[in-house]
Amino acid sequence: VEPEKLAELISLQLAEHVEAPSVIVVVADPVSAEFLHRVRITGQVEEPMSIPYRKRMTVMDLVLIAGGVSVFGAADSTRLYRVSKSGIQVYPVYLDDILNKGDLSTNYTLLPNDIIIVPERVF
Fold first, then answer.
1. With contact defined as beta carbons under 8 Å apart, do 4 and 26 qualify?
2. What is the chain's mean pLDDT, rounded?
3. Taking Cα atoms as reference points, which of 106, 91, 109, 115 lies closest to residue 43?
4. Residues 6+ apart with CB under 8 A from 121
5. How many angstroms separate the Cα of 112 from the Cα of each of 2, 17, 31?
6. What average pLDDT does this structure show over 91-117?
7. Is the pLDDT of residue 4 over 90?
8. What's the sign of the alpha-carbon dihedral 36, 40, 92, 105?
9. Coil, strand, or helix at residue 101?
10. Which of 10, 27, 49, 87 qualifies as a FRET site for 111, CA 20 to 30 Å off?
């Protein structure tokens, strides 16, 4: 809801109790819920991106949406970064095992604000 519309709605409600209410709505933190509920993938994937979070989305889902690992990617050195109350948690992701061997042990279910980084392979 836009601040002006919210102010109007509050004014209408207050008008039942207060004569000629004047309401101003100030947005203190203008970050949208959509921005706060995204998952991101970057590094050596075909198409780095930030997309809206969806329940039950996994690491593999996001990697496939991003077009997969590029030829320069170190798939088994991938990391999942997750912010928690105790700080940033880093989880190893073995993408080669997930995508090519069917080992889903590191195919984590994503949470809002998770970031997956696929590093460059050392030649």
1. no
2. 89
3. 115
4. 44, 72, 73, 74
5. 24, 41, 14
6. 95
7. no
8. positive
9. helix
10. 27
Q: How far is CA 49 from CA 43, 64, 86, 111, in A?
A: 10, 11, 26, 16
Check: pTM over 0.85? Answer yes or no: no
Q: What is the pLDDT of residues 46-84, one digit of tens each?
A: 999 999 999 999 999 999 999 999 999 999 999 999 998
- DSSP assignment, residue 119? P
User: Is the distance from CB of 79 to CB of 108 less than 8 angstroms?
Assistant: no
Rounded Cα distance, 47 and 65, in Å: 8
Tell me the two tokens of residue 15: 């008008």
Q: What percent of the chain has pLDDT over 90?
A: 64
Residue 74 near residue 121 (C-beta atoms within 8 A): yes
